[in-house]
Give the backbone structure.
Amino acid sequence: MTRSIDCVVCGSCVVDLLCRPVSLTEPIGRGVLHHVEPIMIVGGGITSNSGVTLARLGLKTAILSYVGNDAWAPVIRNLYRGEGIDDSPLLTHPTGATSSTVVTIEATGERSFFHCVGAPKLLDAKAFLDRLDLFARTRVMLLGYYSLMPNLENDLPDVFAKIRKAGCQTAMDSAGSGGGMSPLDRILPHLDYWVPSFSEAKHQTGLDDPRRIIKAYRACGAPGLLGVKLGSKGVLLSPKADEYVEIPVVPAPGPVVDTTGAGDSFYAGLLGGLLKGLPLEKAGRLGAAAGACCVTAWGGSTGGRDYAFSAKLAGI
Ligand SMILES: Nc1ncnc2c1ncn2[C@@H]1O[C@H](COP(=O)(O)OP(=O)(O)OP(=O)(O)O)[C@@H](O)[C@H]1O
Ligand SMILES: [Mg+2]
């Protein structure tokens, strides 16, 4: 079977409306008109943040999630199509709304969020098992976010096992609190890639040493590439038991305006680099460069750059 898709990004798919400047300490007041900068519409969630980054790096990318039968659905579809992303696996849910967020941003960059979780939270095993033909055409799938998919998580061991049986690698990211070790302990044996952020990994394992965190995942039978995203300290990766690769932060190629989506962009750069055949350390550096590009633009999906720029920034 020819694998015509490099990566299907699955799960959280959000329309973000960015509104600034908004004071987050003064009351908004009733019936008051506030003048703001042009309100921006950007894609949010892992499907946008990782999906757009992968597409801009030159990888053939598709999105699997739900949107609602509402006015936001064509907005997010057009965003994806404009990036050359295949939105045909993005399905319209009969009752759920398109996930949307109003992000209010202070002049300092501090943000508050008004969020409608919407249809992506309704993703269940059937949404994936009905599309095993898609995964049979795909090299790797990335799903987010663990701890925020209540209808799916208990079935993920079976879903990932079947996706891998179709010859597609599996990757997952977490968000929110990060959740706990159950059902993660049952999911880990079926993951090829698992690189959560430090705060999420600490919440899951109760540990605060990145190497011990990775050992805890290995103890569950995790066979793949593990890691922990460490923010300003970079990322610790582990390709196999007791082997570690430290990926340093790459300086941002401009002023840092918004760190939303840095983790998702890192993941996209890492997977994109590996899909392009780079050795692990270079792929990790490409991930760090993708994270560094992300933070120079508003929202989590607008700062991504092409492969030539990102590779030069990464020094690879
Ligand atoms: N201000 C920054 N400048 C340069 N690189 C950055 C910056 N912030 C993040 N990165 C890069 O992105 C990587 C991932 O960021 P981080 O560890 O914050 O992920 P995360 O916690 O998953 O983030 P997110 O809030 O997007 O979920 C970092 O390890 C780093 O390489
Ligand atoms: Mg993250």
Remarks:
- The longest strand covers residues 138-146.
- The CA atoms of residues 154 and 176 lie 18 Å apart.
- DSSP finds eleven helices and 13 strands in the chain.
- The chain has one domain: 5-13+46-98+118-314.
